[in-house]
Amino acid sequence: MKIPKKISPDRIKDAIVEVRYDTQLPYEVAIGMFYQSLDDTYTYTNRPLGQQKFPISLPANLPQEITLSLGTQNIFYNDKIKIQLKSNSIIFSCLKDYISWSDYRPEIEKVLIQISKAKVIEKYNRIGVRYISEYPETDLKRLC
């Protein structure tokens, strides 16, 4: 199968950049140190991942299920990008529409420089880039 070098029209909707790193600090401590190192153009939110209900056996006058939180996502964002912090990785994505690599890359570099000052990260060990494109009403098999 021949892989195309460029698809026209270009319909990139998002680009996800994941940077993996090593640290000796617990995740909760690293988040706090990242928070302190980022400039005030970034807003922090701690969004819940969701909840799940589990049935339990208790007397009839008590609740018959328990609700457990599935955790949270620690996210920073500004007017251009979103930064999701996970244990040993930082995931960048565009906040709304794709902003072009010439605008996106400086935002990523700025964040990595700022958080490197926190001395949390011992070393970077992997980077991944994924582009998300949409081609409605297009048979992608015909492009190859």
Automatic annotation (TrEMBL):
InterPro entries: CHP04255 (IPR026349)
Name assigned to this protein: Uncharacterized protein
